[in-house]
Every structure is written in C-alpha cells, then in structure tokens.
# Entry
Amino acid sequence: MSKQCSKCGKNNAIYLRHYSGELLCKKCFIKSVEYKAKKTLSKFSMINHGDRVAVAVSGGKDSLTLLNILKNILNGVKPELVAITVDEGIQGYRDESLDIVKNFCSNLGVENRILSFKKLFGLSMDDAMELRPSKKVSSCSICGTFRRRAIDLLAESCGANVIATGHNLDDYVQTFFINLFAGDIERIGWAYPEPVEYGSGGLKKIKPLMEIYEKELVLYAIQQNIPFQSEECPYKDESIRTDFRNHLNNLEKSHPGIKYNAYNSILKIAKKLKTTDSMISQERKKCLVCNRDSSNSICSVCRTLDLLIKRN
Ligand SMILES: [Zn+2]
Ligand SMILES: [Zn+2]
# Structure
C-alpha cells in the first residue's frame, strides 16, 4: 500500500527523505528541491538583479539539472541565462553529451555556447593524453586546469559575470575531506560559498546546488525526465574522491543526516578560515605568457601546455 505525502496530504508519496522523516509526492519533492536551491542563492547572495549568468553545462546530470532548476526558479526575474559547454575533445565520449546539451538547451530556450580545447589550446584532451610525459601527471588535473580557463573565457565571451556550476552537497563535503587530508587549509577557506570576484572582468563563481544531496538531484533528474550522459569519462582516474564518496555514503546509511551536519560544520570552518587578509589582499600577478591573472609568474595553464608541448 502506498503512503500519502506528508506535505500536501493528497498525493501518493514517491520519496522518503530519511534525514527529516518526510514522505513526499512527486510535486512536493520537485518543489522542495527547487526551494532549497532558491534559499541557497539568497543566503549567499549568489545572483543579483541584472547579473548575466553562465551555467557550465557538461551533459552530466548535475549540470543539466542545475540549468533546469535555474530556469524554473529564475523564470521571469531578471538574470539572463546562457549555457556554456567545453568540448575537451575525447573521442566517443564527448560527442554524445554535446548532442544532449544542444537539444536540452534548445528545448528550454537557452543559448548554448561551446568552446573546444583544440580551438583554444591547439590540442584536444586525446592529444594531451598522448603527449603527457608521465602517467604521474593526472588526467583530471590537466583537464581541470584547461576546463577552468575555457569556462572563464566562454563566460567572458558572452558578457556573463556569474558562472554557475552543478556541484552538490556530496561534492562539497568530499572536497573538504580531500583538502583536509592533503593539509590544504587555504583551499578550505576558499570554499566558503559567498562569491568572491576575480579576474579583470569581475567574474564570480557560484554553486547553487551545494546544499542538496546528490541522491535527491538524481531523483529530481529522473522525475523531470532530464536526459543525461551515462557514459563515464575514459580518462577518469580512480581518485581518493571515490573513497570518500563511499565512506560518506556508508555513514549516511546508518546515520541519516550526517552529511548535512558535516556540511554545516564545514561552512563554519570555511567562514573562519576565509580571512580577508589572506584572500583579498593577496597580490594578483599577470602570467608572463598569456597575461591572465595568476598567482605565479607563469599560470597553471601555460605551465601545463609547456609540459605537454615544450613550447620553449
Ligand atoms: Zn505532496
Ligand atoms: Zn598563462
């Protein structure tokens, strides 16, 4: 026998939210997820009137769900949305997701801009993997370094000042533990969600889904018929992140709500660590090669390119 939704008392429940004990019907569940994202946006002043928001959309479930949610909750109010997509150039993997993104955006009526590694750096991710001098240079770190640059440039090219990414609560908590165990205290401070402007164009990065469990985003995507790429990246390295994901999910099973508690503690720690002097007064330099903002005389993108193609 199916049970009734504890919110509206009318429809059959499809989901038991373990950490709160609520039973939710499809409609109330969708509403509650969107409400959570809306609350996160306002709690950390992520989007202001007149902002132009570039949503980084890869074709995975988190990013398409983010676009869908932002489109629903910002409907009618100012900020303009544009979807930006990076084509890393991974044969047999990227093409499927580029099509998914293109169709999804055109159904939502959102402009989609694509930039490829090949066009921007002269080499695709497939090329980079062939050129990499040693397997010790992680594929995800090369890809991540290039992708962050491509996303910044895409956002700038469409006049956006806000970049929204689909990171969820699980990602956020995992990242904290990765940084904690790596001894990287500075990064924990950087992770405080109130956006800090960077670059000459004053870009800001936001994570509107960071207070939502990954599990609930998967259910949201299924309930909303959001198509997403299921194929895994062939270069994905089995990182420590997978271990933390498994540990945290096991803990959550026996102690519902524990990830959310951890999230709240991390917020407080990050806020304390986000000391204004270390973050804001840190002198920004320009990269001697590409002239973009950098904390060293040569930025990480140019250093990676040098490593791959020995340009000098
Ligand atoms: Zn209901
Ligand atoms: Zn550079």
